[in-house]
Task: inverse folding
């Protein structure tokens, strides 16, 4: 018999399996409660600090640089002044439906809402932060991808639309029949 080999008893084997199962359950529980939070680099100057915006009311803010009025929440959400968060789920739309939803919105008793063009939407990107790359104080609970009103040229013609991906802060093109979120703007 090999002196380095020692057979495990059945009871020891079951205890080992129980311990491993318990460790796996603890790890799963820990991972399920972890949420991803915005990460900002303090060595990068903020391009869209709180001081850039003036709160008009709970639902809207004004960008003091561009003079545009923005909806604080995505379409489908409602701003909660007590928690300072956007409650509910952000709705996702095909581009043509997003254009119609913006045109028909009467948020804060205004009827001239629209989808922002790509330059306006890009102006919201906070270069110092990711997950998401936006000022969360002014635009809480921002979801990842948002439509602009700017069409783009694809390989086969006008079949793409410019959009912004706020999770990492870039603009790109997506097919107009994809589902994206809407951030309303008005002049």
Result:
């Amino acid at each position: 018999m090999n002196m380095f080999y020692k057979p495990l008893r059945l009871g020891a084997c079951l205890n080992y399996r129980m311990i491993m199962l318990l460790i796996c359950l603890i790890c799963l529980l820990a991972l399920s409660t972890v949420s991803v939070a915005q990460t900002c680099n303090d060595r990068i100057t903020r391009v869209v600090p709180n001081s850039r915006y003036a709160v008009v009311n709970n639902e809207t803010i004004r960008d003091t640089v561009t003079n545009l009025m923005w909806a604080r929440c995505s379409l489908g959400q409602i701003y909660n002044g007590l928690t300072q968060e956007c409650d509910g789920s952000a709705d996702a739309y095909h581009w043509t439906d997003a254009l119609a939803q913006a045109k028909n919105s009467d948020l804060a008793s205004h009827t001239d809402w629209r989808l922002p063009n790509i330059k306006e939407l890009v102006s919201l990107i906070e270069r110092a932060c990711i997950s998401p790359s936006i000022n969360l104080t002014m635009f809480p609970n921002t979801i990842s991808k948002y439509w602009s009103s700017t069409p783009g040229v694809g390989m086969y013609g006008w079949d793409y639309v410019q959009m912004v991906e706020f999770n990492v802060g870039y603009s790109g093109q997506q097919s107009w029949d994809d589902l994206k979120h809407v951030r309303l703007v008005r002049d």
